[in-house]
Amino acid sequence: MTERTGRCLCGSVSFKLTAEPVATRICWCRDCQHLAANGTVNLMVPADALSVSGTLAEHAKTADSGNTVTRMFCPQCGTHVMARSSARPQFRVLRAGNLDDPSSIQPTANIWAVSAPAWACLDDTLERVERGPQPPPPAGPANPPR
């Protein structure tokens, strides 16, 4: 396991991740497009393996999935750092661009591909999921984190 660190644009908020991501995907939902003007690369990580230094502001919204997604961002520079979903409170979704070494991860799928604009460059070697992905299996002896 590699420990990963990251921060917002101004450095007021930093984080440390001490577990491997459960999933790493490029999201093309309209909310992510509004946040980044493009698809966003996200890591789904266990909430208890993530520590945050600094203060985060929050904004909650009902997503296309029907879940309430609370996005957390730096109140100083506005960088969107992470999110949590009402459907999976045991996880956080980190923005890969905030990692100190974003090359340390590799996306495996494009999700919400149906919402991608016609000009989007979707990697054909990645799994394509038209809408929201299935939830990850619960971790345990039969299903270790992937």
Overall structural class, as computed from helix and strand content, comes to mainly beta
> Order of strands across the biggest sheet?
6-7-8-9-4-3-10-11
Outline, from the CA principal axes?
globular
| CATH architecture label of the domain at 4-54 and 89-128 | Beta Complex
Strand content: 35-45%
Please summarize the sheet with the most strands. Answer: 8 strands, mixed
Uncertain residue ranges? none
Can you tell me the CATH class of the domain at 4-54 and 89-128?
A: Mainly Beta
State the total count of DSSP E strands.
11
- Sketch the topology as an H/E string, one letter per element: EEEHEEEEEEEE
Biased composition (Pro residues): 133-146
InterPro entries: CENP-V/GFA (IPR006913), Mss4-like_sf (IPR011057)
Domain CENP-V/GFA: 4-120
Keywords: Lyase, Metal-binding, Zinc
Characterize this entry briefly.
With 146 residues, this protein is mostly beta strands. The chain has a domain at 4-54 and 89-128: Metal Binding Protein, Guanine Nucleotide Exchange Factor, Chain A.
